[in-house]
Amino acid sequence: MAELIVALDVNTREEAVSKVKAIGESVDFYKIGLELFTAEGPDVVKAVKDLGKRVFLDLKFHDIPRTVERAVKSGGKLGVDLMTIHSVGGKAMIQAAAQAAAEFGAAAPKILAVTVLTSLDQTDLEDVGIKGRTPVEQVEAMAKFAIENGANGLVCSPKEVGNLSKLLKAGTLFITPGVRPAGAAVGDQKRVATPADAVRDGATHLVVGRPILAAEDPVAAAKAIRAEMNI
Ligand code: C5P
Questions:
Q1: Which atom of ligand 1 is nearest to the CA of 7?
Q2: Which of 117, 139, 200, 231 is the most buried (most CB within 10 A)?
């Protein structure tokens, strides 16, 4: 059954805690990304966990294998459930992340790989030396590469998940941002899908930010999305 993760896109610990409290029991999984983590550090992870919630630490590691291995261990010690790396960090880096996570046994954080940032188009890929592949082909190649080297799942657009879930082994996690309930404001997202479509296509976790955080009634907004996900 798919899970709902709320992107805690705020920049103070106080606001993070107050949002989690306001959303209450309707959501038990939160994404802490670069903005909040850079502002508040591991304390904010602890604060969210102390409220009984699970944490997806989305810092998209991309560094030499030893550094990523040690960063994953730090995340594991914090007790986070999901962490992200960039698949272009290479085979040894992905394997190092997976091995570091595995040391936590049953409490191991799951390692998710980013394939191609959705902000990049064909010209951007060529600028960084990736020639002869479309963004879609590059996503597929990096997805296979990441999973073969030990990543547990992928962060991908809801438009890609249907195709990727057919290509990759059963049990692969698919985390999709860019989800908008039917009729909601799209904001700056360009390629959106409804919660029902994302789940039907194989998403295992939906990441939703503004449609819940900015809602007048965040509990009702979260419940409506859960209903659309059928959970
Ligand atoms: O507010 P919204 O629902 O658009 O938030 C989506 C979250 O997912 C944000 O934290 C955003 O940074 C993240 N994200 C995304 N698109 C990607 C990768 C991550 O929107 N391709």
A1: 10
A2: 139
